[in-house]
Amino acid sequence: NAGVTQTPKFQVLKTGQSMTLQCAQDMNHNSMYWYRQDPGMGLRLIYYSASEGTTDKGEVPNGYNVSRLNKREFSLRLESAAPSQTSVYFCASSEAGTKLFFGSGTQLSVL
Amino acid sequence: AQSVTQPDIHITVSEGASLELRCNYSYGATPYLFWYVQSPGQGLQLLLKYFSGDTLVQGIKGFEAEFKRSQSSFNLRKPSVHWSDAAEYFCAVGATSGTYKYIFGTGTRLKVLA
Q1: DSSP code of A53?
Q2: pLDDT at B30
Q3: pLDDT of residue B2
């Protein structure tokens, strides 16, 4: 049982480049989330999707876009990467706001 | 608006001493409440959760937390800390309906002295 699969694990971008982080879950969860983790700031919610077909902004949505492609997949796109977006990104899923299941994270560096 | 505050950024305790980590939340009703732990370089592990009912909840690794509605708090406790408890601890608040928005606090880093 794979749980939440997140790709890539590591990525280095130059300022201005774009990229998409992929996330898929096989637990039939309705809700999916994207967080970023920075030292001293905890996990901050970027975007979330309560169910297929809906997405909402979280605490720090600027510079990001998301797509809930289907019930399984929720991608995060950086259109023009900035050094301030250097972070560790986590995808997560849950059923009705209960326990979160996390992916293994993506370490992103923007130079 | 939904929010979580962990007032203590760093806490240092001696091994064998008791521990209490503070968490205060803001939410329009009784939320879902969680404590997670993250060891260096690792992912987040759920310690315990509160959904409803008994306000004192037991978790893994000997941790417990008490929900106090009047104080909007959900503090984490352990009677005797072990060196392996050194990690970062996050409190989280989940919406109980609708969007199921799930917010984390900024974390408390625990150091344990031998």
Answers
A1: T
A2: 80
A3: 87
